[in-house]
Design a protein that fits this description.
The chain folds into three domains: 3-87; 111-216, PAS domain (Beta-Lactamase); 239-397, STAS domain (Transcription Regulator spoIIAA). It contains 13 helices and twelve strands. Helix 1 (6-17) crosses helix 2 (19-32), helix 2 (19-32) crosses helix 3 (43-53) and helix 9 (259-276) runs parallel beside helix 10. Strands 4-3-7-6-5 form a five-stranded antiparallel β-sheet, sandwiched between helices. It is of the alpha/beta class. It is rod-shaped and about 155 Å long.
Length: 398
């Protein structure tokens, strides 16, 4: 604001009438102009005061007119200086803005991942060079257009991005989502997109960062394939069905029998029965932690299923404590043929299969070409009969 001190005004008139007379004159005119006495006055107040001075005529009128001209000149100089100062400030501000913009563009372009900035309507405002390198779309084909109108992502991805942006604007925390980016030549590329709310040229906008997850997807697929193979191997090892002789299968069970495992056991056993046309299956439960009512019920169902295929099941390896528990619980095991050990179960199975134990001589030869005399020789060959067990009289085989 343009201001002048009263002492400066008095001094302007002192040369023509003396300091004391000039002071009295000015202070009198201040009262006549209805101005408050103070040290400093604005330009408008000085103009009112000079108007009172010009009413006296003569030299005072001329001095007042000259003083107004000086005030106008001083005001013009101040205004010009103010304009120059504001111009310098604007120039410096523009230079700072240009530097900041160049710095932003340098950082923006240096980002490894493809990045785009869109406004609240989804219109592309900025895009990094990597967007063009990855998709094949030139920036001129994207900037100024809504991403919903372009073919840069699939329709499903457009819907997902729009939904996540709407959630983010409403204050909901949104995690990165997987999308499919479309290249100009029609390829689909897996990307993960993360959105951040920013201010772009004093307007609210969204910055979308796309991260290529092709390698991660490939690794996930390889891990899944490895897991599937491992799971298949585990299932195969956890329920091994071994053909120990023509018509005889052995199914050793180790660990805990739950519903899922018993179902796999039944499927595996029935498939093996059909494949090998076996007449007997030995189910050895020596390695089962506990045989309760539930496990016994599962075993009964397994034997019934095998019976429907014309195959007899023999359960071996029930521990004395388990037998006592089953009796105490009132479990009916009458439909299941049980043997104390695998050795006895194998002898029984070979009798049923016609290997010659206690029956007519079997003249068939096994795959190795060795003639079978009795069930004990079979058991010794397969390892189910201990080597130091006493042998039966060979004549019993005739």
């Amino acid at each position: 604001m343009f201001e002048i001190k009263i002492s400066e005004l008095i001094g302007a008139y002192a040369s023509s009438m003396g300091a004391t007379s000039a002071e009295e004159l000015i202070r009198g005119k201040i009262r006549e102009a209805h101005l408050e006495e103070k040290e400093t006055y604005t330009r408008e107040e000085i103009v009112r005061l000079c108007g009172e001075l010009m009413l006296d005529g003569g030299l005072i009128r001329i001095l007042a007119q000259n003083f107004l001209v000086q005030l106008e000149y001083m005001a013009r100089e101040e205004l010009e200086e103010l304009v120059r100062e504001r111009t310098r400030e604007l120039t410096e501000t523009n230079e700072d803005l240009n530097k900041a913009k160049q710095h932003f563009q340098a950082l923006f372009s240096a980002m490894v991942d493809p990045v785009v900035i869109i406004d609240s309507e989804g219109v592309f405002l900025e895009a990094t060079d990597t967007v063009e390198e990855v998709t094949g779309f030139a920036k001129a084909e994207l900037l100024g257009r809504s991403f919903l109108e372009t073919g840069i992502v699939t329709e499903e991805s457009k819907a997902m991005i729009s939904e996540n942006l709407a959630k983010q604007r409403s204050g909901v925390n949104v995690t990165p989502c997987g999308v499919e980016v479309l290249t100009k030549d029609g390829r689909k590329l897996p990307f993960e997109v993360n959105a951040a709310h920013i201010t772009h040229i004093e307007q609210p906008a969204e910055m979308l960062i796309f991260r290529d997850i092709t390698a991660r997807k490939r690794l996930e697929q390889e891990l899944q394939q490895a897991f599937d193979k491992l799971k298949a191997s585990y299932e195969e090892l956890s329920i091994p069905v071994i053909q120990v002789w023509d018509g005889v299968l052995v199914l050793p069970i180790i660990g805990v029998l739950d519903n899922e495992r018993i179902n796999r056991l039944m499927e595996t056993m029935l498939a093996k029965i059909v494949e090998t046309q076996s007449r007997v299956v030995i189910i050895d439960v020596t390695g089962v932690h506990s045989v309760d009512t539930n496990v016994a019920s599962h075993l009964i169902n397994v034997t019934k299923a095998a019976k429907l295929l014309g195959t007899k099941c023999v359960v071996t390896g029930i521990k004395p404590g388990t037998a006592h528990t089953l009796v105490k619980l009132g479990v009916d095991m009458s439909e299941i043929t049980t043997k104390r050990s695998m050795q006895e179960g194998l002898k029984h199975a070979l009798q049923i299969a016609g290997a010659g134990w206690g029956g007519s001589r079997d003249t068939r030869e096994p795959a190795g070409g060795t003639h079978v005399c009795d069930a004990e020789s079979v058991g010794r060959q397969k390892g189910y009969v201990k080597a130091d067990s006493p042998s039966r009289n060979p004549r019993d085989c005739i």
